[in-house]
Each structure stands twice: as structure tokens, then as C-alpha cells.
Amino acid sequence: MKPPHNLVLNFVASAWLLFTMTGVHAAEPLVLQNVMKDLGKNMQTITDGVSREDWELVEKTAPLIADHPQPPMSEKMRIMGFMGSNMGKFKAYDGETHDQALAIGKAARAKDGQGIILSFQKLQTSCYNCHSEFRKPIVEHFYGKKDAAQ
Ligand code: HEC
Q1: C-alpha distances in angstroms, 77 versus 35, 87, 88, 103, 105?
Q2: What are the sequence ranges of the domains in the chain?
Q3: Which residue has its alpha carbon closest to ligand 1 atom 37?
Q4: Is the CB of 46 under 6 A from ligand 1?
Q5: CATH number corresponding to 28-70+81-143
Q6: Which residues of the chain have pLDDT under 50?
Q7: What are the recorded GO MF terms, alphabetically (predicted)?
Q8: CA atoms of 125 and 43, how far apart (whole Å)
Q9: What does residue 65 show for φ and ψ, rounded to 5 degrees?
């Protein structure tokens, strides 16, 4: 029986191996990209819900943004490896997205259209903040493209 810290070391080593191996196929889209596409769709659903005053739809959709799926650990390791000391900031933007989406859900539960709209603006700002700072460098690093637009 190995002491637990060996397990941790093994894990880090295999994650690193996975990182170097997957790095060969650098042009494969990140799982993160699919997570983002879904965030985009759910934002549209919320806009649609507000237009139709369908608070139930808004309430149901907000948690899909707040608790969006995460990329697998191997991909997180690649992203963390690239982000280095910026990772804290990256995570903070994601936390802001989480909080604002929760606020939308809360406002929808209260059928507070104005509250939803105010939180929606803050939510969009949180998406935008991360995109304007990190999207381009991440896209360039992982896809070797100069332009973030696909
Ligand atoms: C913590 C950082 C971060 C936050 C917060 C964030 N994004 Fe992103 N987003 C990214 C990165 C990085 C990419 C580029 C991913 C890629 O191309 O692999 C991206 C790309 C996208 C794309 C383009 C996907 C495609 O088809 O290429 C959409 C749409 C998107 N995000 C929507 C959103 C929405 C909506 C929110 C807020 C609800 C949001 N994002 C919040 C980092 C973030």
C-alpha cells in the first residue's frame, strides 16, 4: 500500500503525460468550446424568455449557465498549464458568471422582469470580461490562430 502522496504524484504525472500527448493534436477543439456554445444558446433562451415574459423558462435556464459542465481534468490541466498565475483571475470571471446567473434565477422566481434584465447585463459583462482578456490568447495557444472568431 503506497502512502497517499504517491497517489497524488502518480496522478499529476499521468495528467502531465496526457497533457503532452494531447498537445500533439493541438487543433482539436477544446471541450471548453462546447461548454461555451451551450452558454451562448442558454443566453439566447433567456433573452427569448424575457421577451415572452416566460419567467419559468428563465428560471429553468439560469442554473444551466450557473452550473455549466466543466471540461475534463486533463483539459483543465492544459488550460491551467497555459494560464499559470492568471488562473485565479480566469476562475474569478467564471465565479462572476455563476453568481450573476444565480441572480437571474432568483429574479425569475420572483417574476421580477426588471431584476432579470439588470442581472442579465451583469452576466453579459462577466462573459465579456473573460473573453476580452483571455479568449484570444487561449485560442492562439490551443489552435494556433491569430483570430478568436471561428
Ligand atoms: C472564465 C472565462 C470565460 C467566461 C466567464 C466565459 N467564457 Fe465564453 N469563452 C471563453 C474562452 C477561453 C473561449 C474560447 C474557447 C475555444 O475557442 O476553445 C470562449 C468562447 C465562447 C464562445 C464561442 C464558442 C465557439 O463557437 O467558438 C461563446 C459563444 C461563448 N464563449 C459564450 C459565453 C457566454 C454566453 C458566457 C457567459 C454566460 C461566457 N462565454 C463566459 C472563456 C470564457
Answers
A1: 17, 11, 14, 30, 31
A2: 28-70+81-143
A3: 127
A4: no
A5: 1.20.120.10
A6: 148, 150
A7: electron transfer activity; heme binding; iron ion binding
A8: 12
A9: -85, -45
CA distance 120 to 106: 12
Ligand 1 mutation target, pool 34, 36, 43, 87, most atoms within 8 A of CB: 36
Q: What confidence score (pLDDT) does residue 150 get?
A: 46
CA 36 to centroid of ligand 1, rounded, Å: 4
Q: What is the DSSP letter of 148?
A: S
Taking the centre of ligand 1 as the mean of its atom positions, its distance from the CA of residue 53, in whole angstroms, is: 27
- Determine the distance separating the centroid of ligand 1 and the alpha carbon of 72, expressed in angstroms: 16
Task: Reduce the secondary structure of 38-75 to three states and give it as a string.
Answer: HHHHHHHHHHHHHHCCCHHHHHHHHHHHHCCCCCCHHH
Pocket residue to mutate for ligand 1, from 25, 131, 143, most atoms within 8 A of Cβ? 131
| Cβ count within 10 A of residue 106 | 15
Q: Among all chains, which residue has been given the C-alpha cell 462572476?
A: 96
For residue 9, how many other CB atoms are within 10 A of its CB? 12
User: Quick one: DSSP state of residue 28?
Assistant: S
User: In angstroms, rounded to a whole number, what is the distance separating the alpha carbons of residues 64 and 101?
Assistant: 9
The pLDDT of residue 42:
98
